[in-house]
Amino acid sequence: MSSSSPSYRALLQVPSLGRALVGMQVIRVCQSMLGVALILFALIRYESPQIAGIVTFASVAPGLLISPVGGALLDRHGRTRLILLDLAIAALSLALIAALAVADALPAALLIAIAAISSLTGPIGATGMRTLFPLMVPPELWERVNAVDSNGYVVASIIGPPLAAVLVGAFGGAVALLVIALLLGAAAIILRRVPEPPSETDSTGQLFRDAWHGLRYTWRNRTLRGIGLSLTILNIGGGIVSIVVPVLILDRLRLGEAMVGIVFAIQGVVGVVTGLWSGRLDTRGREARLFAGPMIVFVPAIALLLVTGLWPIILAMVLMGIVNGPMDVAMFTLRQRRTEAAWMGRAFAISMAFNFAGWPIGAAIAGWLASFSIEAAVVVGVAAAAIGTVLAWALVPRSEPLPGATPAA
Questions:
Q1: What is the tally of structural domains in the chain?
Q2: Start-to-end CA span in the chain (Å)
Q3: pLDDT tens digits for 392-402?
Q4: What is the spatial distance between Cα 218 and Cα 359, in angstroms, rounded to a whole number?
Q5: Does residue 94 lie within any of the structural domains?
Q6: What pLDDT, in 10s, does the model give residues 13-26?
Q7: What is the pTM of this model?
Q8: Residue 10 covered by a domain
Q9: Is position 7 within any domain?
């Protein structure tokens, strides 16, 4: 493919990429639905922000802890089959939660346990999808496919939250979770025919040794380390927002489940344009600035949640949606360009887990604080956004040669 015409249309010429992108989009819609459905399910069933926060933490954190092993598996055994394994486990777990809820046999402790167990394969599926694209697509199209990838989240955030909220409001949380399970099964059917792309590997043949080498590689790579430290802190604010916004809408404004979905969808709507626009930019040499610059907007955006009323919440979500697209595209491209191909499975799994670690922590903090002071939770979120922004500017290098990031065996 000619590097002189890196257009969105050129992506359609990449074999099997269309099927992979469709499967990816269904998965992202499910993830977006689940984030809202699970929180609403816990808030309504147990009437407790603390339980909602703990369930959100349990649905993510255990998988993040074993992400180095997941990355090593991806580098050794490929992506497609492990993505399908993750989809099967997630679908079965959600179906089990729905069945137990209908049977009125789901104490909070059991819900938390099922969420924690099902999270263990989550990083494998998420990283598998993310590392498929740079292996399937030539480097001159990375900005384009990263924009499509980023907008996959954005489009999902338009469709998923309101759909989940309507299902919970109209039919109950159990039905909403069962629908998500069925959609995950559909995604598995779509992705079954995506071939495994050829890739380099630098495996020792020993799973845990490979995982340890992946940890060392990721930590010694200044770019991955800087991205991870800054996004971890920033995502504490994101996790706080995920709990605070539903609590504000349901408990203070008394506007119902559907409005929760609408508010989250607004964030996605405004992010579509900025995400596609940023995909048209040539980010080479500017990735670090394009990644760190938008972060500062999260500080006033989260602070708006201190203002009473629906419109401040909507404005906060609009501001976060505007900057999410450019920041994500720059971060995806930066990570791809500064990670050697043989290390993509391990480095991406660890980096993605590192980046996202703050989200479940923020959700757990918000669940605890919101029980007696929503304002305190918001203030913590604002502080996290400010610190994350400073770390991004200070720690992500403007350039970094790949060879210097490779650890000794």
A1: 1
A2: 36
A3: 898 888 766 55
A4: 20
A5: yes
A6: 787 788 888 888 89
A7: 0.72
A8: no
A9: no
Largest CA distance in the chain: 61
Amino acid letter, residue 324: N
Q: CB of 395 within 8 A of CB of 225?
A: yes
The per-residue pLDDT of the chain, averaged, comes to 83
Contacts of 161 (CB under 8 A, 6+ apart): 32, 33, 35, 36, 260, 261, 262, 263, 264, 265, 268
Closest CA to 50 of 394, 365, 389, 395: 365
193 SS3 class: coil
Question: Is residue 284 a contact partner of residue 335, using CB atoms and an 8 Å limit?
Answer: no
Domain with 144 in it: what CATH number?
A: 1.20.1250.20
> Side-chain half-sphere of 197: how many Cα atoms within 13 Å?
22
Residue 276 included in any domain = yes
Distance in angstroms (rounded) separating the CA atoms of residues 118 and 325: 29
Q: Which residues of the chain have pLDDT under 70?
A: 1-8, 75-78, 198-205, 272-287, 341, 399-409
In whole angstroms, give the CA distance from residue 250 to residue 209. Answer: 48
Full domain range(s) for residue 392: 16-195+207-405
Q: Which amino acid is at 79?
A: R
Helix and strand counts by DSSP (H, E) for the chain: 19, 0
Task: Please provide the size of the chain in residues.
Answer: 409
